[in-house]
Amino acid sequence: MTTALNLLLVEDSPSDARLLEAYLEEGMLGVGSIERESTLEGALARLSRGRVDAILLDLGLPDSSGLDTIRQVVTTNPEVPVIIVSGLSDESLAEQAVALGAQDYVLKNAVTPKDLARAVTYAIRRADVIEETERVKSDQLDAKDRFLSHVSHELRTPLAAVHQFVSLVADETVGPLVDEQRECLLVAMRNIRQLALMIGDLLVMGRMSSGVVEIRPEPTGVLNLIADCVSTFSPLAADNDVNIHVDIDPTDLPDAWCDPLRTAEVLNNLLDNAIKFTPVGGSIAVAATVDDKGVRVTVRDTGRGVHPENRERVFEQYFREMGDGDSGRGGLGLGLFVCRELIERQGGQIWVDIDSSARGSCFQFTLPTIALAQTEAAA
Amino acid sequence: MTTHKILLVEDDDDLRRGLARRLTASGYDVVLAADSLAAVSTARTERPDLVVLDIGLPGGNGLTVLQRYSDTASLMFTPVVVLTGRDPIAIEPDVRKYGVAGFLTKPADNDELLRVIERALRGERDPAALNEASRN
Q: Burial, B77: exposed, middle or buried (Cβ in 10 Å; 0-12, 13-18, 19+)?
């Protein structure tokens, strides 16, 4: 250690403080300054004014005692190493102190100048290593996000080319097919779509963790939003022979305070799932109502439903509920995870209702009304 | 009924060929450009009714092409359908400034692409364009 160290000694007993200072000066090279505070309040005020290299902390202070003292120092200054200097030989207390984030626990009446110096030096080194590790970890996460975004982008163009040429053959634009050829190409097309979904999920993952997704709320007509999303999905639903029905009374539905793009993303995701899991001939009902929680949007389908025990888990990252023969149906299991993120970041809630007597699943989410958002902002 | 002319701007040779074949099969005249310079010069000489535009392009990107179109009197009202492999959320605010007629992510569903093109040629903006931008 080449630079002079600045230590903060938090000790209310003047005689103990003098002894510890003498030990540090005797046992340690490179001590620049030893500042002293005799209360927790004084110590926290000193730390708020600027960083020190290490804190030597007595647990019994006039305004704080025991583990609470550590908690307060560590939570406000997580990067500064803390060495407990205690008069109490208590193994379990020492263990708890370290669990709370202290680097070491030394006994005032048993420690030698050399021991104390070693404890402080090692604590500082360990804190440096931890800081470096955290930095490397955060760099790696950034690199991972950039990688995901890059890979997702680079995979799309060749996939689009494959999709285009397979579809040109599959829909007989370039010549007639026999049934068996057509069946083979339909399987290829289905898998191309699945791959596209997965690539989209890669992108979403990078995006969510890097915080690219901004929420820009504005007064939003939910009815129009639902109509737009439903019209986007109508062709796909028709292909699967699934009926989508919208049930909204436009006269009593106030505008929601939400980001229309992000809300559309949620609705698209729910509709996509509903279509995916609803068998031929089934139906999907989209409704919107208002209550004291705000505007409530419901997407109900007659598909196979969500297993009650997975009620919470369906919103977790990478969770996919497996059913018969549908291993190749979705993306990476991020859709509902993203939905929950987006809805909660807009001040709403999303959940799935489990009704064992009814078929299918019923996803609901709420969005604040403008009035609710104003009350919230004023509170 | 006159045949509409579409300028397809895509730098990937295979995808450009595939999409051109798709558009031709759907009854459009198709002219091609593979980079952003050609996207501007071909648009000037060919006067297409609509442009399908990739964003990641050599020689500048699709956004510079959109800027050049909006600066050019003969092109500023030509509808543009963006077809991109980029993260739609990351580039959407930039693209939105130019009021594009449609925004699709690769690989786009053929029916959807053709529907967006038809609408744009009728002078309508695709109502799902922004939904589309947020999907995936």
A: exposed
pLDDT in tens, A236-249: 898 889 999 998 88
A164 and B133 within 8 Å at the Cβ level: the answer is: no
Predicted TM-score of the model (pTM):
0.66
Angle, nearest 10°, between helix axes A91-99 and A67-76? 20
Q: How far apart are CA A337 and CA A331, in angstroms?
A: 12
Between A358 and A299, the more confident residue is: A299
Share of chain A above pLDDT 90, in %: 52
* Contacts with B85 from chain A: Cβ below 8 Å: 153-157, 160
Burial B93-109 (b: 16+ CB within 10 A, else e): eebeebebbbbbbbbbb
Q: Who among B90, B107, B128 is closest to A159 (CB)? A: B107
Q: Which of A128-142, B57-71, B81-95 has the lowest average pLDDT?
A: B81-95
Residues belonging to chain B with any Cβ–Cβ distance to chain A shorter than 8 Å: 12, 14-15, 18-19, 21-22, 25, 56, 85-87, 89-90, 92, 105-108, 110-112, 115, 127-128, 130-136
How far is the C-alpha of A242 from the C-alpha of A252, rounded, in Å? Answer: 28
- Give the burial class of B58: count Cβ atoms within 10 A of its Cβ; 0-12 exposed, 13-18 middle, 19 or more buried: exposed
The closest CB to that of A212, out of B90, B106, B136, belongs to B90
Residues A315 and A332: beta-carbon distance below 8 Å: no
Residues ≥6 apart with Cβ < 8 Å to A362: A298, A299, A300, A301, A352, A353, A355
B86 contacts on A by Cβ (under 8 Å)? 153
How far is it, in rounded angstroms, from Cα B85 to Cα B88?
A: 8
Any residues with CB less than 8 A from the CB of A62 and at least 6 apart, and which? A12, A38, A39
Q: Do A156 and B107 touch (CB under 8 A)?
A: yes
**CB proximity list for A332: less than 8 A, separation 6 or greater:** A198, A201, A202, A205, A318
Specify the pairing of strand A218-220 against strand A256-258: antiparallel
User: Which residues have CB under 8 Å from A92's CB, separation 6+?
Assistant: none
pLDDT in tens, B80-105: 999 998 877 778 778 878 889 989 98
Nearest-Cα distance to chain B for A64, in Å, is 50
The answer on pLDDT for A17 being more than 70 is: yes
Residue pair A294/A275 in contact by the 8 Å Cβ criterion = no
Instruction: Determine the residue of chain B that is closest to A198 in CA distance.
Output: B136
Contacts of residue A143, defined as CB under 8 A and 6 or more positions apart, other chains included, come to none
What are the Cα distances from residue A358, in Å, to A241, A289, A349, A355? 21, 21, 23, 6
Contact between B85 and A157 using a beta-carbon 8 Å cutoff: yes
8 Å CB contact between A108 and A16: yes
